[in-house]
Amino acid sequence: MRDFATLFAALDGTTKTTAKLAALTHYFRTAAEEDRLWTIALLSGRRPKRAVTATELREWAAEAAGLPLWLFEESYAMVGDLAETIALILPAAATEESPSLSDTIRALTALTGQPVAARKAAILGWWARLGTTERFLFNKLITGGFRMGVSQGLMTRALSTATGVDEAALAHRLMGDWQPATTSFQSLIRDEGEGTASRPYPFALASPLEEGPEALGDPADWHAEWKWDGIRGQLIHRPGLLALWSRGEELITDRFPEFAPLADFLPGGTVIDGEVLAWDRVNHRPLPFADLQKRIGRKTVPKKLLLEAPARLLAYDLLEDGGRDLRNSPFTERQARLAAILSDLPPDLPLSLSPPITCADWADLAATRQTARERQAEGLMLKRKSSPYFTGRKRGDWWKWKLDPFTLDAVMLYAQAGHGRRANLYTDFTFAVRDGNALVPFTKAYSGLTDAEFAEITRWVQKNTLERFGPVRRVPPELVFEIGFEGIQESPRHKSGIALRFPRMIRWRRDKPVDEIDTLDGLRDLLRATRA
Amino acid sequence: MAKDPVLTFTDRGIYCPAGDFFIDPWRPVDQALITHGHSDHARWGHRRYLATHQALPVMRHRLGQIEAQGIAYGESLRIGGVTVSFHPAGHIPGSAQIAVERSGEVWVVSGDYKVEPDGLAEAFAPVPCHAFISECTFGLPVFRWRPQAVVMNEVTDWWAANAAAGKVSILGAYSLGKAQRLLAGVGAVGPILTHGAVEQVNEILRNQGYDLPATIRAGQGVDGRTHPGALVIAPPSALGSAWARKFGPAEEAFASGWMAVRGIRRRRALGTGFVVSDHADFPGLLSAIRATGCERVFVTHGYTAPFRRFLAEQGYDAVIVATEYGEEPEEPVETIES
Questions:
Q1: How distant, in Å, are the alpha carbons of A78, A446, B220 from that of A418?
Q2: How would you class B45 by CB atoms within 10 Å of its CB: exposed for 0-12, middle for 13-18, buried for 19 or more?
């Protein structure tokens, strides 16, 4: 793991993209091929089969360090990362060994299914032989969640520089469900691997439009459509194969059995980009995201749910037509082909075109956008009519023009320290609204403030703690924040009876006294209004 | 029969009723015994100060005109009904633990301390006592320092690599103590430049006879062009500042015990962090407490709650005492910025 540890240290030790790129390129040129393959896998979110649970890791580490479990947990709360806590808390290794990354992973994989005693002995053995950094990386192999500040794009660029293989081709080859255990470095980058038939294309991503669209020029150059509140999906139909991929590169075909009949009607060699939604068949419109959510987590779907929340794919782009890669054709051309294919389908299939929105001018479009919530949409998408289907996020051609969030003012009741980069800073807050004389907690939020604001609040929390519950601190209800959120729904699981979608802090309202925060009645009114 | 305690904890600081003096008080008092010169321990405004001969020059420099008496390490001094003595704490040059003895009962105030000898500060010496008042800045078991020689080699290698790449190395370190410890411990790669705040302390310590390598005060006409490949030692607040940019192409690093935690290192957006602390690590705190043979421990600043509980589980009579000593471990942001 020495090469890998050196790479990690180089990536972790800099915030400069050029330095990261250089370190990755060097690694992809010099490390053992098998290790390169695993590094690509790890950096793209794959990980070896989990041989040990987090609970086992905690207990074994505390025992090996000769410490009570509660002290281990206190330490974990401060460090904010389980793998790192274990690496730091154990005494230094007497003699350090450095097996290769792939050998380490093979040994770890072999542990799955072994009796506890065998797994424990093996893990304790590794801990005793590895230096602190390598111990940390070893633990990360088990716990997952490698965050090295390397995007998929950066990794692909380094790999392209190191191997001479075209970057866009590589980006496509790295998609899908390839596994390092069943492929090799060369076949991965030279496109000889298995599973190529079902492999998705890299998704094109839009950038948020912060100001109005006026700066985009002539509205005639732009295609507008609703920004749906579902999950992004790529549907692939090739001979003998129908596959649905989520944007997280997860194969979700089996979770949506209603799409299976599409295989009988779509022409071979068709790849469609669209939005999976739970669909209201009576009113011909999407159901709220909460209904789709019931489907997402399920690998097998009960009949009842299929009836209550049937899925539909609203298609907005065509990436492959008759087996031909269309991604470099202009958007309008792809759109025309997509419309033609869809119009040939029987009307009862759960697949249709995401309707385009026509507008006279930008002001007209802005007015249409304001009606998005009534259609269960989050806002609008704007796509340049001449644009190709690009790889990843490329500013300028695709914009998401979301509605302004709902907002309300609430007071902080509890604070908890964050994890990772935010370990040791109080960043996770619970907020309350007023209900008569009482304060009712109704949401948590973690993001939206600057590091300096979090640091200031952290000092305040430390000086004003009323009570501690493990890592959580109760504070006096004094700090008021404007909370933004995208949606609201009923929730019997919450004390307040409601749950918010994407809550975050918009700003710290130092100017706002606590008795002027919003009320639970106000939230209930909003809930009724959005239901209507 | 319960005896009156030798020391009590007041809102002005640690107080000895039988001797009518305070130790490291944070509000103005008549008689202050000072463990060391850091500003959260040696504060301005007391009528009379007592500190080691080694600690006084920096205190006089920082506090201006003060009425102060010096005392040698190990020397006994009778004050009222008690005898006091100062013993090396290993924290920074001149730092002391203060022992207060009354009719055979000894209480020791540690101030800040570290157990590993650093080659510059007078090495920590355990003092047998009945009650020990201990800091616990790094009182969690994730804090385990590696031997100083190993870390100093890392600093030297970093400096050499930067110099080879034509860059200046700017190392952030507290100007009293940490800066000089690094100076004394780092290998000889090239010229060493210092920020004014560091150089002032260097001059004082050199005059006292502490052995420091030659340094040059950075400033007009002294930068990365006149001294290519130099190491620059500056207070942490200078990192990333306009002052630091004047050196030309440079790499920055920060030396602190907090750098042991990746999240803290990354939050500072600092490439390199060297784990160098002038406080005891977790094993160091435990070994220091054990070496005193004490039964009672009062824990002051740091991870007081878990550290106290752990000591209690080890059989100590352990109590948390609220003080106003800085370096709140839960506030590395503040610690780092100060």
A1: 9, 8, 44
A2: exposed
* pTM of the model as a whole: 0.79
- The CA distance from B269 to the nearest CA of chain A, in Å, is 7
Task: Say what the pLDDT of residue B269 is.
Answer: 65
Q: Which of B146, B313, B328 sits opposite A68 (nearest CB)?
A: B313
Q: Is the pLDDT of residue B233 over 90?
A: yes
Over range B290-302, report the average pLDDT: 95
Q: What is the interface pTM, i.e. ipTM, of the complex?
A: 0.92
Interface test with B, best of A79, A148, A465, A473 (most B CBs within 10 A): A79
Would the pLDDT of A72 be above 90?
Answer: yes
Answer CATH for B148-274 from 3.40.50.10890, 3.40.50.300, 3.40.50.1100, 3.20.20.220:
3.40.50.10890
Residue in A with minimal Cα distance to B142: A89
Q: State how far the Cα of B55 lies from the Cα of B52, in Å rounded to an integer.
A: 5
Reported as a single tens digit per residue, the pLDDT across A110-144 is: 999 999 999 999 999 999 999 888 999 999 999 88
Read off the DSSP letter of residue A241. E
Per the CB < 8 A criterion, the answer to whether A202 and A327 are in contact is: no
Of all residues in chain A, the one with the smallest CA distance to B260 is: A88
Question: For chain B, which residues make up each domain, given as ranges?
Answer: 8-142+278-335, 148-274
B8-142+278-335, CATH topology level: Metallo-beta-lactamase; Chain A (3.60.15)
Could B262 and A81 be called an inter-chain contact, meaning their C-beta atoms sit closer than 8 Å? yes
Residues of A in contact with B313 (CB under 8 A): 68
